[in-house]
Amino acid sequence: MLKRARGARPYYFDNPDIDRLMTIVMSVAEEVVVTRERLDAIERLLDAKGTISRADIEGYLPDEVSDAERETMRQKSIERILRIMVEEPKILVADAEAKSAHGGTSEYAAIVREVS
Amino acid sequence: MIDEQTRHAMLPEQTHDELARENFARSFKKVIFNHLTPGVRDVWEHRVGPEFEAAEGRGPADRHEVRKVMMKDPYVKMWSSLRRVSQELLWDTVAENVERQADELAERAKGMEGGGTLTLDPTVEVPRYISAVDVHLMPTGYWADTRPDDVASGAMFDRGVYVYAQGQLGKLNDGYGNTIVDNFLKVEYPDFKPRRILDVGCTAGGSMLAFIDAYPEAEVHGIDVGAPVLRYGHARMKGLGRVAHFHQMNGEGTSFPDGHFDIVFSTILMHETARTALKNIFAESCRLLAPGGLMIHAEFPQYEGLDAFTQYMLDWDTYNNNEPFWGAMHDTDLEALSVAVGFERDKVRTAYVPALRQLSSGAKNGGGMKLALTVAQKA
């Protein structure tokens, strides 16, 4: 069974190798986060049971509290991996606001002028 | 996430790690939506937009002008790429999960006990607008058989859509059907007693459930061009203890007689179909309705009235998510189309209803999202 959808895939970057790399990188991210989640199950089971089997891990289902904690962990992990993307627009906005406050120059340049 | 989807008899099962992969896909989408997508708006307002205005001496005329300049921005390229990858990873996971149990699911569907009917017709041609691309990146589309008695496409849809919508479509993927019944029909037509109801493009039958439960005296029918989703839907319905009738037909032209139904509806079908097909579906809906009957086609709202940048954001799927008809459909005047196929002007309108969202506690909440219902009553 074909596991990729048919229909031309868009390539976003001038160099399509970067698109492929993005797919590979985020797949690696997935592997890491999934491993984290499995580890988390093991740790919680160990807390509860002192010793565990592979079947225990396979069958592990979180309760409502653990589920929420695991979701937070997943999202925080992904935010860390994508930090550059989370922060870049904030810097853009801050720069734009600073520019208008300092009459057209960047905050950094304004500070340099102030202290020189 | 706690696995909240109702575990009916046909739903594929997940191992610990398969569930973890689905969780990753959901969390990844959430991070994009909450942290990166707002950044795109910042990039427009503080970088690309001002550059456009400086170069052209005006704002953008439409969403296409916005798209052409945004596509060149490095932040937007990376955001688009991540969004696309998140979609692919989701379906990768669901496809792998379904493939390993596809034979078992096919057997189970064949042996499922219960009422209702399934009428397949191998002479029904899968239209090119369905077969050409796999919409929203679901492998096999809605129609391709990967083995005899195949249900893989239906199983992928049933599980994938639940994960894709992050549970917002309800535990039985019946949210949109409930929206039409609870937030529209029961409100505006509380005494309506339909005898026969038709779901056009029923896929796995999720939207039919609300109608079956709300109108126990009625016969509920669903049509689709894809055999695997119909086989799955029929078995799933039996597993849920409901009675419904599934037929392999194309909504552009069915073999039902004139005036056979009192309600003809669809849920988010229209953006998966070509413009010419849309007109045919509307015309067929009209033909199939008895006097006083209702046509209700539910979709995400049109773009009219929204600014160019917002339209560009809503239109991302057209170019990046294998939704080739999305943009054009959102520009179409669906009320005018209804009149063009024979409904009287004063019997045609658009109703905006809150889309029912199921909270994890089971309580129903309208949330902020609305569905646009194109409604027409047969004279």
Structure in words:
The complex is a heterodimer of chains A (116) and B (379). Chain A is built from five helices and no strands. Chain A has 116 residues and is an all-alpha fold. The longest helix of chain A has 34 residues, at 16-49. Chain B has 379 residues and is of the alpha/beta class. In chain B, the strands form two sheets. Chain B has an eight-stranded mixed sheet, with helices on both faces. In chain B, helix 8 (208-214) links the parallel strand 2 and strand 3. The N and C termini of chain B lie far apart (49 Å). Classes of the chains: A mainly alpha (116), B alpha/beta (379). Chains A and B meet through helix 1, helix 3 and helix 4 of A and helix 1 and helix 3 of B.
Helix and strand string of chain B, N-terminal first?
Answer: HHHHEHHHEHEHEEHEHHHHEEEE
Poorly predicted regions of chain A: none
Classify the secondary structure makeup of chain B into a structural class. Answer: alpha/beta
Main beta-sheet strand count, sense and barrel state of chain A: none
Arithmetic mean pLDDT of chain A: 84
Amount of beta strand of chain A:
under 5%
Order of helices and strands of chain A: HHHHH
Please tally the helical runs of chain B, counting DSSP H or I stretches of 4 or more residues: 14
Calculate Rg of chain A over CA atoms: 23 Å
Through-space gap between termini of chain B = 49 Å
Give a nutshell description of this structure.
The complex is a heterodimer of chains A (116) and B (379). Chain A is mainly α and 116 residues long.
Keywords:
heterodimer, A: 116 residues, mainly alpha, flat, B: 379 residues, alpha/beta, eight-stranded mixed sheet, two-stranded antiparallel sheet, 14 helices, 46% helix, 15% strand, globular
Topology diagram in text:
The complex is a heterodimer of chains A (116) and B (379).
Chain A: H1 16-49, H2 54-58, H3 64-81, H4 83-101, H5 107-115
Helix pairs in contact in A: 1-3
Chain B: H1 16-56, H2 63-70, H3 74-99, H4 102-111, E1 117-119, H5 128-131, H6 152-164, H7 175-188, E2 196-200, H8 208-214, E3 219-224, H9 227-239, E4 245-248, E5 261-267, H10 275-288, E6 289-299, H11 308-314, H12 316-320, H13 326-330, H14 334-340, E7 348-354, E8 357-358, E9 364-365, E10 370-377
Parallel strand pairs in B: 1-4, 2-3, 2-5, 3-4, 5-6
Antiparallel strand pairs in B: 6-10, 7-10, 8-9
